[in-house]
Amino acid sequence: MRSMLFVPGDSPRKFEKASEGKADALIIDLEDSVVADKKPEARNLTLAMLNSRPGPHQLYVRVNALDTGMTLTDLAAVMPGKPDGIVLPKSQGGDDVRQVATWLEALEAASGITSGATRIVCVATETASSIFGLGSYKGCSPRLAGLMWGAEDLSASLGATEKASGGVFHSPYRLARDLCLMAAAAAEVVPIDTVYTDIDNLAGLEQETRAARRDGFSAKALIHPKHVDIVNAAFAPTDAERTWAEKVIAAFASNPNSGTLRLDGQMIDKPHLRAAKKILGQL
Fold first, then answer.
1. Is-contact 146 125, C-beta < 8 A?
2. Which of 17, 67, 202, 239 is 20 to 30 A away from residue 75, measured at CA?
3. Of 132, 139, 140, which is closest to residue 92 (Cα–Cα)?
4. Do the Cβ atoms of 141 and 123 come closer than 8 Å?
């Protein structure tokens, strides 16, 4: 999974347009993109979108945060549509995942869904307090599939006047990004880079995505359909990377009892093998 495109939960038209693209996942949003008095309608529309299944995309639903009191209502409304996963905003840590997982267990049973099939992705850096919970995701639930970092709500939580300058995030946001990446690696789930909000700056989007991939992120959240192809391409391995990965895997396959090998004049070991498998999508 490389690209996760947000779609407003009250806009079937935008959902249809998004479904024509090549995003790996669509996130139907019941949170920020839907005003309070339209949320009941958006729940019904979201269920209809889930039931339509217009393409091969994975379908996630971003519910409202636990502190709103609306999360369970959202889940009860959309689970009959059998979403592939739930995106939980403003997550504070592993306890929040366990709470949502408990609700999903019951709702899956009520909807005839295989127990444990619905995954959870957490937006894990949207409040100052959430940063201190990043270490609690490891082992919290087998449903946990990914951790996404976000800067927009974090800015409000910090009382900051500016997030970035010249296309570069300021220190607090870089810290949140890096800690989220490390938390996802520790929990062995997908690290997901934040949305790029300068919609028409496609060169900046490509640069930010390539930097995310360089550092270890496996996917990026998106807010506009025209970003999808750029992000997918940026996360694709280069020909040189693919060739290197194939050579590393072949070398270890020929020497299954070796922990270290010499390849093209360089020493390689099992971390190189894991990196090679990740490049080729085998992890």
1. no
2. 17
3. 132
4. no
